[in-house]
Design brief:
mainly alpha; elongated
Length: about 110
Amino acid sequence: MKKKELYVAMGERLRRQRNKKGLTQENVAEMLGISLTYYGKIERGINGLSLEKLLLVSERLDMDPTYLLTGEKRTVVNFDLVIEQCPKTKQHDMNQLIQYALKLAK
């Protein structure tokens, strides 16, 4: 993907999230400490985000950085919930399996 295409796609995702949160461009520009003009250029795909601003967007707009950059959503598994949904007699075993799997992944 070319840089321009990446910027346009990121800007579209950023705009959708901003609208979803009920924020104006001015609100987000202020959150990021940048001018309204510059922020508008980011949403239009003319400019990109610095790494610092990307992390701020992630934090302040509750947006996964991977999704912002690629458009791909990561699946996050809540292991506590998985264990809770197991029968009480199997919860210890499930916890042990998860711990074992995490050790194998290292």
